[in-house]
Amino acid sequence: MPDRLPENAAPPADFTPGPAARDLLRRIRAGTLATLDRNTGHPFASLVNIGTDADGSPIILISRLSTHTANLEADGRASIMLAETGKGDALAHPRLTVLGQFILVPREAADEGRLRRRFLAHHPKSQLYAGFADFAFWRMQVVSAHLNGGFARAADLTASDILTDIVEAQALIDAEEGAVAHMNEDHGAALNLYAVKFLGAPDGVWRCTGIDPDGLDLQNGPLALRLPFPQRVADAGALRMMLKQLAEQARAM
Asked: What is the residue range of 134's domain?
């Protein structure tokens, strides 16, 4: 029996595909990239590390010597699959397929520095080759997505269902680098509280790897978590108040 619901069937009442999809998009750090083979047109699948821009648009760092890069240069249409892993049947865990068009980000582009910083925060070992001349960042222009959360828990989604609205949030985007550094340098205990109290994670050296209007990304070695904010934040002042409020709530739990 297929996982996907029949047309016009109502999803389970406890199934909220938008938040579930956004969590996978922000939290899963590697996935399958499916490009169109430039010679045959067949789907060509490969494994890549994945990061996200401030709005959630997927970012990849790939070499122009790779087959998937040659495919994207010929036709930027592609999809990525982000899958949760765990014990038991792999198909029992949620996975998200995101479809769109990958666009090369030139090194001289105004936003290349932000993409580089955000990606390397999630993938610090990529520092070893990120500066090589044949490597470059590509960002996906999302068209749609499909979430499969298990039996009878599937949904087709639009780009706006999974991406973060960054309209009127440029002040926060500009402040992100400093805010992330400040949290990691001065508020490690608060980051650990967020992970343990709100997300049920084990104690550890949790670090902030990204902040956007909808939430905060946390990482401890191979473990990655997403802490959604209860309300949207759009500037440094609102972020400061939000993080203080969350820390106070976590200490009281």
From this structure: 17-162
Specify burial of residue 51 (Cβ count, 10 A radius: 0-12, 13-18, 19+): buried
Task: Produce one character per residue of 69-86: b if its CB has 16 or more CB atoms within 10 Å, e if not.
Answer: bebbeeebebbbbbbbee
Interval 234-244: pLDDT, tens: 999 999 999 99
Instruction: Summarize pLDDT for 161-188 with one digit per residue, the tens.
Output: 999 999 999 999 999 999 999 999 999 9
190 and 243 Cβ atoms separated by less than 8 Å:
yes
Point out the domain boundary residue: 112, 141, 162. 162
Q: Distance (Å, rounded) from C-alpha 45 to C-alpha 14?
A: 33
Instruction: Look at residue 11 and tell me if it is in a domain.
Output: no
Residue 227 makes CB contacts below 8 A (sequence gap 6+) with 194, 195, 198, 199, 215, 216, 217, 218, 246
Kindly report the number of other CB atoms within 10 A of residue 105's CB atom: 20
Cα R_g (the chain), whole angstroms: 19
Shared-domain flag, residues 144 and 188: no
pTM of the model: 0.91
Nearest-angstrom CA–CA distance, 100 and 118: 20
Pairwise CA distance, residues 52 & 109, whole Å: 17
The DSSP output letter for 16 is -
Query: What's the half-sphere exposure (Cβ side, CA atoms, 13 Å) at 7?
Result: 0
Whether residues 156 and 62 share a domain: the answer is: yes
Q: What is the arithmetic mean of pLDDT over 184-202?
A: 97
Q: Which residues pair with 142 in a beta bridge?
A: 100
